[in-house]
Amino acid sequence: MLQPMHYFEERATPYPTVADFLRTFNEEMHSLYLLSFLLTADHDKAEECLVSAMGECVEGIGHFMDWARSWTRAAVLKHAIQMIKPAPEHADHVSFVSLKRSATQAESNPFAAILLLDPFERFIFVMSILEEQSDEECATLLRCSRRDVMMARLLALKRQLGTDALAQEILQS
To answer: How far is CA 19 from CA 4, 9, 16, 26, in A?
Structure first.
């Protein structure tokens, strides 16, 4: 009797190599550094964060290549959190003093409005708005409640809007 033949798709699962991660870092160096800088708000810490993330990715080879890009961004985020340790302040109101401070410094630096946010608000703004992570992901990574995430995002957005409005007033006067 003839035995039935079974065909299996024998596609090799591409695991990333050190060269793959180095290529990913080279291709995305600018955006990874910008992510690191916006999170840490400090050039030296941003470099340290990026180097640590790169080291983690090279040491942890073994993930699917398709995940290499997202893994490098997650590594930068993880190291920035370890470095800065952002925590919610549980303030439920916007300080108008800090809004005015942000507006006057925003003229010279396009990222000033983000960099001048409190660390927790800055992390939430970058993670949820720029990196499009869910409230649950933000809360899990920052070890806080979803309410903390929502309040910080609201405050960060109010500060951004306040900065824009005050900057317009300064430019018109």
So the answer is: 42, 27, 8, 10
Place of tokens 């990222």: 111
DSSP 8-state code for residue 4: P
pTM score, two decimals?
A: 0.73
How many whole angstroms from its chain centre is CA 21? 19
Task: Using alpha carbons, list the distances in angstroms from residue 33 to 27, 45, 99, 112.
Answer: 12, 10, 26, 16
Distance CA 83, CA 129 (A): 21
- Write the CA distances from 87 to 35, 81, 141, integer angstroms: 19, 10, 11
Neighbours of 93 (CB within 10 A): 8
Residue (of 72, 1, 79) closest to 31 by Cα position? 72
Question: In 3D, which of 159, 44, 39, 35 has the Cα closest to residue 105?
Answer: 159
Q: pLDDT band at 67, cuts 50/70/90?
A: low
CB-based contact 77:39 (threshold 8 Å): yes
Per-residue pLDDT of 52-65, as tens digits, reads 988 887 776 655 55
**156 and 128 Cβ atoms separated by less than 8 Å:** no
CATH number for the segment(s) 96-172: 1.10.10
Half-sphere exposure of 68 (CA within 13 A, CB side): 23
